[in-house]
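Regression report. Comparing outputs from two consecutive submissions.

Submission 1:
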Amino acid sequence: MKVLVTGATGKVGSRLSKRLAQRGDRVRALVRDATRAAALREARIELVTGDLLDADSLAAAVRGVDAVVHCAAFFRGATAEQAHAVNDLGSQQLAIAARAAAVKRFIFTSTGLVYGPNGGRLAGEDDVCAPTVPYPLSKLAAERFLLSLEGLDVRVLRLPFVYGDGDPHIEEVVPMMRDFPPNQRMSIAHHADVAHAVACLLDASSPAHRIYNLVDDEAPDLATLFAAVGAAPPDGSNPEKARPFAALMDGRRLREELGFKPQFPRLADAIAAGA
């Protein structure tokens, strides 16, 4: 396939682009600044300059591709207005451009945070979503638009906390989650398994307009996650701050319908493999 990846200089998109190229896909990366994408160019990934907020730039980006994998998003530090503009309206513009260019498939990487605080129970794809903070609110709005858009084969992949593969993600959240409850559990997945899940959605002929959760076999508690990078457990002093993150995902649909099987089913497996 010829695949356009957005957010290709980000944590998920950069690793995903390279893995899709390694499996034989012809990958084009949408980047805002080509000078930041030297590693992608070295991986023989085609670069196209554009911005989700510039509709005219998107027409050239989607021209001639078979599929779009939309990873670009504004997450940490985004105001509600910025999250809405990039994550919702930007996604809408990209999807409309893809449909106009007769792109066959559109994969939207969303987030498990769309479920909202539900006490840490396993959330399935058909469960009611009730997020309370701007990032997942904007992602959920984009999901709803995309899934209602006629004439475009849309699949939504709800990602958990993504780690591994040289990504300092765990270290970066330690300060932010320092006051979370140490026994609060978090759905996670390795970057390699994100790429595998995306490949499953690219390759499956059906069903269209379907949502899939991606998760490891185990959801570690935060004390275990922190220990993986040598950090002391969080102190639990602000459980209210942690509530928006208190939802776990049920990943059976992806496995049963598309045959997904994680390369790193548990955090311990990735640690043992030095991954």
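Submission 2:
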Amino acid sequence: MRKTFTAGFFGVTLLSLSAFGQEGSSPIGFGVKGGVPLNDAFVVRQQNPVDYIADTHRYTFGPYVEVRLPAGFGVELDALYQTYEYQQVVPSPIRDRNSHAWEFPLVVKKRFLPGPVKPYIEAGAAFSHLNFADFAELHDRNTWGFVVGGGVDLKVGPLHFTPEVRYTGWTSRHFDSPGTLLQSNRNVAAVMLGIGF
């Protein structure tokens, strides 16, 4: 009896997942995603002499997984890695500060049009965790934000190519130095490209 119930449960689950697939696509998608920020990671307000020099690392990358739902909807979770670097010039000596953050955007996507080329829009929330020592510039190690974006899902054989533009607005700053001479940017725009199955 138990074996019959278990087999029936898995059979119904598989049929449900098959029904969720979109025009031959798997109901579960996964791959990698990379991006290039369009604006600087830091806002630097200079005084005389210069207090800070910031370097924006123009990349972010990581894996993603997506559940594809009926009617063109989907839910995607990313794990994106990004690094930060700045130097404090005054007081001397110069001090280098390097850190990295993991960002976890969770978005709901809506695809349009039939066929292999599907424009889409997306919106959701994101969580960011910063790995950084307790220096004076550290303001908030963890922060939340909202995400909006849009792009195109191009299906070529089993592969999905998803170029998109994405905006993230953070509720608080990772960095905020005394006197607000160095602050992390709360408004971040990026061009992203996902490649997956």
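Expected: both submissions complete independently.
Actual: both completed, but the second showed a warning that disappeared on reload.
Relevant detail on submission 2: The chain is about 10% helix and 55% strand.
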